[in-house]
Amino acid sequence: xxxxxxxxxxxxxxxxxxxxxxxxxxxxxxxxxxxxxxxxxxxxxxxxxxxxxxxxxxxxxxxxxxxxxxxxxxxxxxxxxxxxxxxxxxxxxxxxxxxxxxxxxxxxxxxxxxxxxxxxxxxxxxxxxxxxxxxxxxxxxxxxxxxxxxxxxxxxxxxxxxxxxxxxxxxxxxxxxxxxxxxxxxxxxxxxxxxxxxxxxxxxxxxxxxxxxxxxxxxxxxxxxxxxxxxxxxxxxxxxxxxxxxxxxxxx
Length: 252
Description:
- The protein has two domains: about 1-110, Tetrapyrrole methylase, N-terminal domain (Cobalt-precorrin-4 Transmethylase, domain 1); about 115-250, Tetrapyrrole methylase, C-terminal domain (Methyltransferase, Cobalt-precorrin-4 Transmethylase, Domain 2).
- It contains ten helices and twelve strands.
- The protein has helices at about 20-25, 45-50, 60-65, 70-75, 90-100, 115, 145-155, 175-190, 220-225, 240-250; strands at about 1-5, 30-35, 55, 75-80, 105-110, 130-135, 160-165, 165, 170-175, 200-205, 215-220, 230-235.
């Protein structure tokens, strides 16, 4: 039948579009992908509003070879819910491509994404360069990719959106403060003056909600700030237009 890939927004059960809600209610099975992001409300709120039982889909279920979501979509309407917008993560593009290869009809319903929600800061979206992420360091895994992406974007005068690690199974959600500590440690190690403590940054939390936290300041200043509940992200501005400079003053 059909796989309905539906973005449900960034905040709560109420962020789903009317179109998306209609598709959920006509679907026989509903899955919610839970490992690439997090809503600011309990999952049970979705089931109550949508009037549907919702199966939580972890990475193994979505990315595994024996994909039950796709198998069910061969014979019935299945809704696959994505926090944010469906294609902000390559995982979901892969899902669509696999479905099409197996002859499954696919519909896509877009919604808000962190990639656009950062516009509230006043940094102009078309001036962002490559997006990067900071993972939790592990014993044999301490990548410096985020530092290198910031360096490249800065060279081109572009802003950087830094997404922060999520370990849903452990209920660990990286904070702005943790990300800054990691980036400052890389700077200390490499000494390339890409991310000194005087770097202008914008720390954000719960974008898309009614109570976001947005604070602009140097990396050193933001280390001492409390950004509250997750999810957090970090912005590193490039060259600023005078209107962007004015916006930074608003968030200081």
